[in-house]
Amino acid sequence: MKKHNFTSGPSILPPIVFKQAAAAVNNYNDSGLSILEISHRDKMFLDIIEGAQVLVKELYALGDDYEVLFMQGGASAQFALVPMNFLNADETASYIDTGVWSDKAIKEAKLFGNVSTAGSSKESSYRFIPKGLNVESNARYLHLTTNNTIYGSQFHDIPNSGVPLIADMSSDIFSRPWDAKRFDMIYAGAQKNAGAAGTTIVIIKKDFLHTINKRMPMIFDYRKHADNQSLYNTPSVFAVYVSYLTLQWIKAEGGLAVMGQRNSAKAALLYNEIDRNSLFSGTVTTEDRSLMNATFVLSKPELEPAFNEMIKAAGIVGLKGHRLVGGYRASMYNALPIESVQVLVAVMQAFEKSV
Ligand code: PMP
């Protein structure tokens, strides 16, 4: 039976990417070698990683004033590496607290310097994106999580900060056209919109990179990775290849404009049903709802087992909400076809009739 995969990540990728990645495991590009057995210094891999770096810049219309790195350790490693590289003990960084991932980033930053909270929605269970930010004018940088995977909220505008802007875009990178030039640094675990788990895309403006003035272990130093074109140590060869394939797919489909249109259409379809169907309600303020992760609950929680049965029978997987929030979460990343959302909406309508 066809599965409709609403999993939050690692998550659905385009069928062509699965096909090409599988073929490369057997025989990469007719080389007679598996992608898993080639050196990361081999020209075949250099072409892959350079091709991926070029595509990241092309999709976000970035010039040579930006570095694109493929690192390891997930976005969680970036939570620590950002302050380790950029924040000195006597400096302050501003953070916007919009959920679990922001909170983890804040905790890591406190190990290296001072943190001031520019805005937080913690008191209201992260139901909205804080407005009217309070960014310290001398802050080293402002950090935000553009899409809150667990709570289902998303920034729809890039905040004006007046200080360097750093974004964790793990769950909405490449999902819509955005002015990436406004950011001094962007990072994202690849495992949602950008490929397989195992590599983390890091985009850093060169001017900002050059403001690092600390000594630290080489493996944690962004300058070292940039100087070595992400080949300071062995990168996740296969994961970088899957990212390259995924980026090629995004470009071939029409780039970020097309991704944005499709993601808006999918989200509108589902949120309209959540708002129309009295059995369901959304958990996030309407204006801050995420186009990537729609979170909702049943108005009568006792109906959950019956709804879960219907979801399962329709081939829908990965709809369970995060353990901290409960309810349901439909993750609708780039590769999820609108047909899957139509199936989910049809199940919600059939469920309404059945109770
Ligand atoms: N930030 C966000 C927004 C996330 O969604 C996640 C993971 N889902 C993380 C950070 C942590 O990423 P990783 O597990 O790759 O460290």
Structure description:
By secondary structure, the chain is an alpha/beta fold. The protein has two domains: 15-253, 3-Layer(aba) Sandwich (Aspartate Aminotransferase, domain 2), CATH 3.40.640.10; 256-354, Aspartate Aminotransferase, domain 1. The protein is built from ten helices and 14 strands. It has helices spanning 15-26, 43-59, 74-86, 100-109, 206-209, 222-227, 237-253, 255-276, 304-313, 338-354; strands at residues 4-5, 66-71, 92-97, 114-120, 142-145, 147-148, 153-154, 165-168, 185-189, 200-205, 280-282, 293-298, 316-317, 328-331. It has a seven-stranded mixed beta sheet, with helices on both faces. The longest helix has 22 residues, at 255-276. The chain is globular and about 65 Å long. The two termini are 26 Å apart. 4'-deoxy-4'-aminopyridoxal-5'-phosphate (PMP) binds next to helix 3.
Give the CATH architecture of the largest domain: 3-Layer(aba) Sandwich
Number of strands: 14
> If you consult CATH, what is the topology of the largest domain?
Aspartate Aminotransferase, domain 2
Roughly how many Å apart are the termini? 26 Å
Order of helices and strands: EHHEHEHEEEEEEEHHHHEEHEEH
* Overall CATH class of the largest domain: Alpha Beta
How large is the count of helical segments?
Answer: 10
Shape: globular
**Tally of individual domains:** 2
Question: What is the fourth-level CATH superfamily of the largest domain?
Answer: Type I PLP-dependent aspartate aminotransferase-like (Major domain)
The low-confidence runs, each spanning 5 or more residues with pLDDT under 50, are: none
Q: Looking across the biggest beta sheet, what order are the strands in? A: 2-10-9-8-5-3-4
The biggest sheet, with number of strands, parallel, antiparallel or mixed sense and barrel status, is: 7 strands, mixed
What is the typical, i.e. mean, pLDDT?
97
Strand content: 15-25%
- Ligands bound, unique: 4'-deoxy-4'-aminopyridoxal-5'-phosphate
